[in-house]
Amino acid sequence: MVQEYSSILDWIVFNDPMKNPYYPFVDTYNLPFDIGYKLWEILGGAIAWLINLIFPGNPVSTWLVCDATSTLMGLLIFMLLIFIIAFVSTLIVLWMERKCLGRMMDRRGTMVGMKGFLQCVADGLKTFMKENTAPKKVDKMTYWWCVSLIVGLSVLVLCMVPLSQRWFVVDYQTGLLIIMAFFALAPFLILVSGWAQNNKYSLIGGMRAAELMISYEVPMLILIATTALLAGSFNIGDIVNAQNETVWYIIPQIIGAITFFFCATAEAERVPFDIAEAEAELVEGWQTEYAGMKWGLIMLGDYMRGSVSCSMFAILYLGGWTLPFIGNGPIPEIVFLLKSYLVFFFMILIRCALARVRTDQILNIGWKVFMPLSVINLAIVLLLKVGGVF
Amino acid sequence: MMTDSIVPVKEMEDRMDTDKMWVIMGPQHPFSHGLWTLKVQLDGEIVTDAEPIVGYLHRGWEKETENRTYPKIIPMADRLCYAASMTYTHLYCMTVEKALGIDIPEKAKYIRIVADEVCRIQSHLMWLAAVGTDLGNLTVFLWCMREREFFLDLNVKLCGARMTTNYPRIGGVRNDTTELFDRDIIRAVDRFEKAMWDIIALIDDSSIFVSRMKDISFLTREQCANMGLTGPAMRGCGVDFDIRRDDPYDNYDQVDFEVPVLTKGDSYSRYMIRIEEMFQSCDIIRQAVKKIQALGKNAPYRIKTPSKVPAGTAFTRLEDPRGESLMYLVSDGTDKPYRLKVRSPIFTNVSTSKAMCLGCRIADVPAILAQIDMCLGETDR
Amino acid sequence: MAEVLQKPTVEEIVSKLNSDCPCVNVTRTETRRVYATAPRENSFQVCKYIHDNLTFEHCSTVIGVDYVDHMTVVYHLTNYYTGVMIELSVDIPADDLHIESVTPIWEGANWHERETWELFGIVFDNHPKLQRLLTPDTYEFFPFRKSYKLRGSE
Fold it and tell me: Which of A352, B1, B291, C27 has the fewest CB atoms found within 10 Å of its own CB?
């Protein structure tokens, strides 16, 4: 197809990305990719037009606006967009925790700029400026790799959570399971890094992370399987649609929702289940030897996992991005984020009111309370399913 | 049969050498409120041995006093304990008065009682704040610190300083109660009694808080008396003894109050004793303020004392917020003490930490040692 | 075995001490206070008697005082039922600073004796762990003795 390029508008044509033969999302519309694609249309089109002005008829300009290049560049911008939105929503979670916690404790919370939001940025800059130190006798490879992998996995999991039907990275049939699998990898790395640091506090912290994991992971997976059973699919979109068609799953599964909430709190290693980094007795637990930016990134990773926990709760029990009677609103992404912030608010409330549990207590709670409750929840769901209610 | 299983589980367990490790908590550790070290030997998470190490703050306080005249020691006594400075100054002045053989005016006695109880409440609030952080909750910490501010303000109202007050004098107190002090203190106490219930509701209604303290670290009455554990921790173990009631000094026999005692002896009963003591202190303050008002505005509050103390020995003791504190004075007839010895309650209390921590988990160590309310200024002296 | 008094009054304490421990010299008494001295050789037996038969369960302090020509160890003992205190002073000659430890009787005296040893050099025999507590292990002198001068005191 040979075109006649004369004006800039010939270069920027705003093709439909879904008509593109290289479109990566098969037949579903993807908003961030659409934005990225259009951005590249403008950017690449302008560059191509400029080059074409100087060297008319050159192959570079045509290459810049061809289908394959547009898809590639669109994908790059798409990745950036997904990450930035996820990152900013994590910062909002962080800011929310500091501000709400401050108010509940009868103090002001952060006060630097934009109602305290810029304190997160300032803290990030501060940890970034710190000298990158590592103790002499650590196991170098595991020490460095663990922090990278923990942070990397947190970012990966956060980016994999879809914000709506049109805002996702991959649309797996088993999306829920894959997110949970990546989510559950972190405690292993915590155990390994606790061992690698050559520090007794870190070692105990790492062991505790493993203890914590075996106590909440099983009930949590049972609960997820229950929801999947109710919806008839492991696909996140299908689960949300099923809730939109019937009722939010928090109503039939109220026991499961409460249990899942506490399991999610444990998954995110927040008070009262932050025994792996119990600062009263273990200094900072498994993070003791991580200083400066490493610590900053680990903290960020913690909050990322916290916001993923809340997102999972919103998906599984609060109808995801849909609203009752409205369904997909005009901006379902905002609805979804607001729901997950609501769940996070309850986590802040828990943190404000409760103390840290002991290791033997969390094992007791996990196997004697969460486990029976999740099985009861499964039984209720089975009854509902067999009875034909859903 | 189960006993003839192929794998000899019991024998294996006996032969299995689990490695014990020493974890050195301190001197810079979030749980040690001050500079001290607790070496704990861990078998997994269970504490099998513990050894406290103190002395990082030893500054030879007792030796330094031998170089100073008697009035100059008063501000030094403030620095023994920053959380309840008034009690040590009070104790020092009482000891010197005993060596001089003089009796101070009634009003000064009541003012000292009021000041002591204000210090007791603020020290206990600081302890409660520390319990909050040791159990992993910051809300308790901040709420207690907020309440404590009102009592620090009372210190300011009484003598102008917040913590190191320099208020009692040999032969009385430095100044009379300031104008409207009695109104303010009654208001503060009334307010505190209401606000305290918020904090109690936060802790005692939460099963997590209670389960972290209940049924751990049992001490019997005999153990407790023999090891020299004193103060609220002792009364939580069943020793029915309070120096204010059983060996009254100043005018504590003129006020009416109850001494809370619990016989269970676990960490939670030691916690409850301190909470109840704060309410009792409020009662004492109310009665003492009434007595001060009854004495009138122009009653004397200080008498002149000689600068030289006759040769001899004297000792007094009083009920510190943390336990029994005692001062022993040897004078040689000059204006400087020959020897002044301070018995700090925490110095002995912390030496019992092995008995308290044995068999508990490492997660409980901060929760248990919070109950002895560390203050290093008086421990190391 | 002599009879055990759980709540002895001051008079009872004085008469008991006079009859059962003739070596003890009660110097004076006040309300709820008994001041007494004992020779070094019998100090342990006296303390054991006071603990076992007069129910003085608590040892408040063990104090060392340097009188240059001799040293004195002062015990403050408390009865938890009546609030009576005994102040027991034991003189030690300056050339032989040894005394029997009371830690086997009162565990609470442990750290007080360690402190007295490290600051005055009074050796408590049979003490389970007589090591430096407040001062650094490298100290080879006893800082609270009168022979150790503070700067500015001359």
Answer: B1
pLDDT given for residue B2 in this prediction:
47
- Can you tell me the ipTM of this complex? 0.87
For chain B, how many structural domains are there in total?
A: 1
Residue of C nearest to B349 (CA): C108
The upper half-sphere exposure of residue B328, i.e. CA atoms within 13 Å in the direction of its Cβ, equals 19
Asked if B138's CB is within 8 angstroms of A101's CB, the reply is yes
Minimal Cβ distance to B351: which of C58, C85, C110: C110
pTM value is: 0.87
Contact B45 A275 (CB under 8 A): no
**pLDDT recorded at residue C153:** 52
Please judge whether B328 and C109 are an interchain contact, meaning their C-beta atoms are less than 8 angstroms apart: no
What average pLDDT score do residues C42-49 get? 86
- CATH number of the domain residue B331 falls in: 1.10.645.10
Gap between the terminal Cα atoms of chain B: 64
Topology (CATH) of C10-99? Beta Polymerase; domain 2 (3.30.460)
Task: Decide if pLDDT at B295 tops 80.
Answer: yes
Of A353, A355, A358, the CB nearest to B361: A358
Mean pLDDT of B247-273: 87
Question: What are the chain B neighbours of C74 within 8 Å (beta carbons)?
Answer: 313, 328
Q: What angle do CA B168, B174, B176 make, to 5 degrees?
A: 115
DSSP 8-state secondary structure symbol assigned to residue B162:
S
Predicted local distance difference test score (pLDDT) of residue B4: 52
Is A354 an interface residue toward B (CB < 8 Å)?
yes
Domain extent for B82: 70-355
Could you tell me if residue B251 is inside a domain?
yes
Residue B13 confidence class, pLDDT cut points 50, 70, 90: low
Regarding chains C and A, contact by 3 or more CB pairs under 8 A is answered as: no
Task: Look at A280 and B142 and tell me if their CB atoms are within 8 Å.
Answer: no
Kindly state whether residue B148 falls inside one of the protein's structural domains.
Answer: yes
- Which candidate, A195, A373, A157, A182, places its Cα nearest to that of A288? A195
If you count residue pairs, one on A and one on B, with CB atoms under 8 Å apart, how many are there?
A: 83
In terms of Cβ atoms closer than 10 Å to its own Cβ (0-12, 13-18, 19+), residue A325 is exposed
CA dist A336 and A359 (Å) reads 34
Question: Helix, strand, or coil here: A266?
Answer: helix
The predicted-structure confidence for A279-329, as pLDDT tens digits, reads as follows: 778 888 888 888 888 888 888 888 998 899 899 899 889 888 888 888 787
CA dihedral of residues B244, B247, B252, B255 (deg, nearest 10): 90
Chain A residue whose CA is closest to B367 = A280
Task: Tell me which residues of chain B have a C-beta less than 8 Å from any C-beta of chain C.
Answer: 54-55, 58, 60, 62-64, 66-67, 222, 225-230, 239-241, 243, 246-247, 313, 315, 317, 324, 326, 328, 330, 338-339, 341, 343, 347-348, 351-352, 380-381
Please state, for a pLDDT cut of 90, what percent of chain A lies above it. 10
Question: Given an 8 Å threshold on Cβ–Cβ distance, is B45 in contact with A357?
Answer: no
- Residue B92 tokens, joined: 């020092």
B147 touches chain A (CB under 8 A): no
Give CA separation, B60 vs B156, B352, C113, in Å: 30, 23, 17
Cβ atoms of residues A345 and A100 within 8 Å:
yes
As given in the structure block, the two tokens for residue B165 are 């007050």
- For B35-56, what is each residue's pLDDT tens digit? 888 888 888 788 888 888 888 8
- pLDDT one-digit tens code per residue, A112-136: 888 888 888 888 889 888 888 888 8
Evaluate whether residue B16 is within a structural domain: no
Percent of chain B with pLDDT over 90: 5
Helix (H) or strand (E) holding A74: helix A67-104
CB contact under 8 A, A278 and B139: no
Best mutation target, A199, A201, A265, A358, to test chain B (most B CBs within 10 A): A358
| Residue B50 falls inside a structural domain | no
